[in-house]
Structure formats: C-alpha cells, structure tokens
Amino acid sequence: MNFNRIVLLFLLLIVAPLRAQTVRWQEQLSQAAITLTKDQVTYDPTYFRISYPMGDVPAGKGVCTDVIIRAYRKLGVDLQALVHTDMQAHFGVYPKRWGLKKTDSNIDHRRVPNLMVFFTRFGIVKKMSNMATDYLPGDIVCWDLGGGITHIGLLINRKSTDGKRYLIVHNIGGGQVMEDCLFSWKIIGHYSYGGT
After folding, report:
1. Do the Cβ atoms of 74 and 54 come closer than 8 Å?
2. In the chain, what are the domains?
3. Cα(90)–Cα(12) distance, rounded to whole angstroms?
4. Strands 140-146 and 124-125: what pairing?
C-alpha cells in the first residue's frame, strides 16, 4: 500500500466518525425543535428580566430566537451564557442597533443579529442559495422581513408536502410552529452550530 493510500485511509477513519457524530447532533437538534411545537406559546416580544445562566422567559411566551435557545437548551447548550460571555469579551464585534453601551444577559441572546454574529464566530457559515438541497435538518436560517426586522428558524427532519424542502420550526407570531417557509423571505444567514 503506497503512502497516499495510507494517508487517505487514515483520514477516512478520522472523518467518518466525526461526520456521523455531526449527523447525530443535527438529528437531536431537529427532534428538540419538533418537541417545542407541542408547547402552547404566545408570541411576546416583551423585555423580561430572567435568571442567568440558563434563564428563560416565562413558559408560554417567546419570540423566534427563543425557539433556537430552547432547542439548544434541550441538548444542554446555554446560548444565553455563551453569547453573553462572548459579548463581554468582544463587545465591539456585535451590532449596536439598540444603542447598548454594555451587555445585557436578559436580552442579548434573544436578538437575531447577535445570534448571527455568534454563529458566524463559533459555528459553520453555510451557503445561502435558492436550492432547497443546500439546507439540512439542524441548520439555522435567518431572514430579512423588511423594514429592519429579522427572523430566525431551525430546519427539522420533516419535509414539505411536495417533498422538496425541509420544514422550519419558528415563531413569527403564531407560536412555536412547524412550517414550510424556507424561501418565504430573503435569507440573510445560514449556519450550523454544534454546541461545543
């Protein structure tokens, strides 16, 4: 066996288990998001004082970012603490749209632009396209709804009725729901984050 084949075999032995681990994580994240759709949640963008770490807005309330936060939390990942810690250390790289002078652990992780920065820094930035095959269960997608309003959702392992797109779990006003809305708005972010 020549050296190139040995190197290729070695790489396959390393990459295959990592790929399988990533797929398992994405499936678990997808299932976590699906379970959220069973909870009765009213869209409520009110500023809440919440505990830290592992804080959450009152049960039965939430916005689009809370879907992402709650799905990851079901897998033991506290985006509140992760985003807050990174913002404290690197405040200058996060958006200043709200006139903030310092971090706020009650709300920073609940803002789509902040999550976009966090996922860009610590996740995998994936291709934005109009091809449904580029979007996989466990992926996070962000949209521009117009007028400076952003939105975020999580792809799950269930498909649209025509079988062409994975569904999204999100909350745009009707609670934590599962919908075929991948291309309903302008996509401005596409990420994968393993929670490590």
Report:
1. no
2. 3-192 (3.90.1720.10)
3. 37
4. unpaired
pTM (2 decimals)? 0.89
Say if CB 180 and CB 171 are below 8 A apart: no
| Predicted confidence (pLDDT) per residue in 15-31, tens digit | 444 445 667 999 999 99
CA distance 71 to 140: 11
180 phi and psi angles, rounded to 5 deg? -90, 85
Provide the 10 A C-beta neighbour count for residue 106: 17
pLDDT higher than threshold 70 for residue 177:
yes
Cis check: omega of the bond before 95, within 30 degrees of 0: no
Cβ–Cβ under 8 Å, residues 191 and 128: no
Residue 110: count other Cβ atoms within 10 Å of its Cβ.
25
What single letter denotes the amino acid at residue 4?
N
